[in-house]
Design brief:
223 residues, mainly alpha
Amino acid sequence: MDERKLSKDGECTMRDERKLIRNIKYRQDREAANELISHYYQEIFAYAFRQTGDQELAMDLTQEIFLSVLRGIGGFDERKAGFRTWLYRIASNRITDYYRSSLYRQRGREVPLHREGKQDDRYLEGEQGGGSSEGERAEDKLWENDVLSHLLRKEQICRVMELAAGYDRVWMLIFQRKIFLEHSFREIAGDLGIPESTVKTRYYQMIRGIREEMERDEKRTGK
């Protein structure tokens, strides 16, 4: 994702962003903090809203995300990641924590944790030019489109996210970046420092697992 900057006219540079961050880090500059937050607030709110379907909750989560950013900005190292990448990692983790939290379980149902298991080797082989057939790849896309269709329905968003949050955190980051940030598998692999084939494997395994659980839900409820 483009690590651009910030100014009131929308044409600011990365250099300006770095200056704001330095001022927050070393001078506790409240005006710089407000400017940085103002620039990113709307996109982080939209990111939270797409994963909750609830405006008030998205606002609460966005506020908590930026509080975490300000508390942790002293440890931000631009040599390891750009600010936007770092910001979205915090946002993603906070949203995942919400779905795993006791507060969410009070509002909904308990989140079953899926532990990392044996990977489906056909994706790994497919990355190397064999294995996965055209039919299997087409089936994967159908499952993916079905899960995406559920995320367009407000009443289904929380169930999809609840199931996704049950997977290990790195798997959840892959899911969030692919679905909600529309990153490519290559971009996700670069950000997370894992092979592209592993990213693809985990993503489609999650999609299948989520869809299978939702099919079981539909059978139980008759919908």
